Amino acid sequence: MNKGYLCIVLHGHLPFVRHPEHEDFLEEDWLYEAITETYVPLIEVFEGLLNDKVDFRITMSLTPTLVSMLSDLLLQERYLKHINRLIELAHREVERTRWQPEFQNLAIMYLNNFCKARDIFERFSRNLVTAFKNFQDLGKVEIVTCGATHGYFPLMEVCRESVRAQIKVAVSHYESVFGRRPQGIWLPECGYQPGHDEILREVGLRYFFADAHGVLHGTPRPKYGVFAPVYCRGTGVACFGRDLESSKQVWSSIEGYPGDYYYREFYRDVGFDLDYEYIRPYIHPDGVRINTGIKYYRITGSENKQPYIPHLAREKAAEHAGNFMFNREKQVEYLYDFMQKKSIIVSPYDAELFGHWWYEGPMWLDFLLRKIYFDQKTISTITASEYLFQNPRNQVLVPSMSSWGWKGYSEMWLQGANDWTYRHLHKASERMTELARTFSHTHTDGLLQRALNQALRELLLAQSSDWAFIMGAGTHTAYAVRRTKEHILRFTNLYEQIKSNSVDEKWLQDLEYKDNIFPNIDYRVHQ
Amino acid sequence: MAILRRIKERFKKVMQRKKEPSKAKMPFIRKAEKEKLLKKIKKEALGTQETAIEKAKFSMPAAVRVAPPLLEELPWGYGGDKIVLQVRDPWWIHAYWEVTSQSLDKLRERLGDAFFNARRTLRVYDISQIIFDGTNAHRFFDIEINPEATNWYIDTGGPGRSWCVDIGLRLATRGEFIKIARSNTVYTPIEGPSWITDEEWMVPEEMFARLYGMGFGLGRSSPVGKAWQERIKRALFSGILASPGITSVSSPVKIPKERKFWLIVNTELIVYGATESDAKVTIQGKEIRLRPDGTFSLRFALPDGKQVIPVEATSSDGIDTRTITPIVSKETK
Is any Cβ of chain A less than 8 angstroms from the Cβ of B265? Predict the structure, then answer.
């Protein structure tokens, strides 16, 4: 009989980056890298567990933007080109490193990784969403929804209509993709504002996740801390708090696993290390050096980086998985005495941390889930829905405003570098509400309806928290600034054309072609 | 109470460190001091990783590409007197506003000379738990702002309270305040656990303090860290583990060096040649592909030492064979 539960949440998200108007667009690589290094390895892990009949539970949020990109034919086509080029480079690397076996082994490892990625990609008919949908249908993975474009909700408080639109568009997108209604939601950036649970209830979402202080600073005081869910006062939507101890073990640079000297170094890539002439065909067509994904070194712990040794890293991953499990067992045992009931430890991570940044992350997860299943009886993995089903009686309180961002509130997205955006975003929201109300009952003909729907698409795309994040993080902000401005300008022009009944169809068509996300969107949700 | 306060302070520190986006900069220092500073940096860097990792998602090239300029720019304003408040954290709120020139013209007309001596002012009202009618605030304070400013971060000093802000003019003579626009109301979250407890879900103070600390991973109250270390130690002495597995020995924190001069030298060897386009060619016994015109070119990373590289070509009918064997030795001084 177990004494408590572990709820691992992987938040899979990338902003919508798709530029059909350009042959080759650098920022699209975010998706291609994540496919090769994160999504495919995770699929491999889950498939392996299923094959070996290991029972496990993972909660994943796949944001509507990510799902849209993974299902997009153009991006799928481009990914195939991308991975083929990488495979070619890996072949050349195997050859080039012939006299350096310590590197050649790695070149072969990457060649295998890339070929496997292509195989899995093809096996799911190029749409990896299908793979995750299957895991959900088998009851192993619970996929939760998110904001339509990952807008940061607390900074939309003055225009709740936009929060509603973000949520409603996401939920109907989820239904069309996964063939069922979502049970829960990962609030973008874990950003919770009291009152937004009303909107969650409206659309039938039963739970969300908040950072630790969202629950711990709730009113009244939560009896079980973050180790049991609470219901929001007035709405009954359940809120699960993040456990920072388990988070820290993976995130932190001191106690965190990914910094281990035996693990692969993220910052040394052949895209930067090799002779320009040689690497030229595999970097950006502009000739700008970029990461290729082939990385030969381990973190080492000094400037003089040593070659990566896969089997040592693997041992480390196993050991770290053991450590993580042991700590959760102790935590759960302690809590069981304390609480007199089974606790739930919620450990959320960015999915892209696994594999992309922390190369051994998927391996660690694999070891962890196997160990939990075979090696002990104190903890089991669980999804939030299952926990609620087993523990329907929970304390009622008002969680505190919070996020999992820098300093725990809104500063990451509200600081000197990005605060200028809200004036425009809020105005656009206000105008969208005006449009939705004006045309809520009138029968809209083809062109007008298309313009209204496109206006909402542009607004949602402008609201992605990623743009503010990149501006706030302060490096290479140009793309984020441009995307924000572009979508607001497109929205404003649409608004003006709609108001003056002079929609430019050719231009609208061009926008629909470029910003083609959410084909079935209905502008009326923005109210 | 004391326990809670202590934990609250530590929480504050944790929050400050979370996802710290600014890189730790280190002045030029002597080696002896380095160790000490390194330790400090390590401490401060807790959470830096979270932002760093998230940033890694959006990998960017070293050079900045130049995109074509936008055809339009966003407007400065939208024509309306307006002020909007947003919460940044328990202590700070942000205000942005727009005041139209028409409104200012009207005020100038109405006030005459007094207009020119008046100060552009934000009046911040504490309106916790009341329905604000413009006069019943618990208290208010004024912030004098530059006429060119269009937004402001306001230190409310008051977590867990409701706020409303007017933008307006404060007349120099009588101290009278003329409102131009009034903001929405915001509520700053409390910065620690609530003092309100739930009778039905009562929890003793001591117990809550422990749970609270555990939630933040502050460790002391949870048995985790220590037990694991002990287990590892035991395993070490019994020879189960090859290396000490305590993660804290490793850290990717790098000390930025004051002087950044550096040099890297690598060598590669290019072996190229040509033969009949349908011939079979091997290099060091491994078959290679010829280009359609019968040429070939291979590139190898060249380590120190001697490389013997037999290149053998065999005609398509298998009758003729030619072998040429370059021998290359490399040494690095």
Answer: no
